[in-house]
């Protein structure tokens, strides 16, 4: 699958679609934070997302109910890979070091990461 990068607005719409599973434009807007975007704006973004292959739809007369064609996990994998390759020389170690040095991880999160690493070592 060839995943493309989403704009900020496209990602906001996809986040709602991933949460809801299937939704009409009106239902997507209802769940978005204030100030809510205009109906036409979200409708246009949805059509762009369809063109990019992220969204499909079911027709109900003149209405369309939209659903994700790309899973959140697949996009998360793509976005994480892009972050690691673009900013951390393809090194998860460098990325993790950055988060630790910038105090982006609290003690509880650090302990949880250590547990995950120990678990991974045992496999």
UniProtKB/TrEMBL annotation:
Keyword hit for Magnesium: no
Recorded coiled-coil stretches: none
Residues making up the signal peptide according to the UniProt record: none
Cited InterPro entries: BlaI_family (IPR005650), WH-like_DNA-bd_sf (IPR036388), WH_DNA-bd_sf (IPR036390)
UniProt entry keywords in alphabetical sequence: DNA-binding, Transcription, Transcription regulation
Pfam annotation, one family: Penicillinase_R
Gene Ontology biological process terms, A to Z: negative regulation of DNA-templated transcription
Alphabetized Gene3D superfamilies for the sequence: Penicillinase repressor domain, Winged helix-like DNA-binding domain superfamily/Winged helix DNA-binding domain
Single GO MF descriptor: DNA binding
Family: Belongs to the BlaI transcriptional regulatory family.
Protein name in the entry: Predicted transcriptional regulator
Annotated source species: Olivibacter domesticus (Pseudosphingobacterium domesticum)
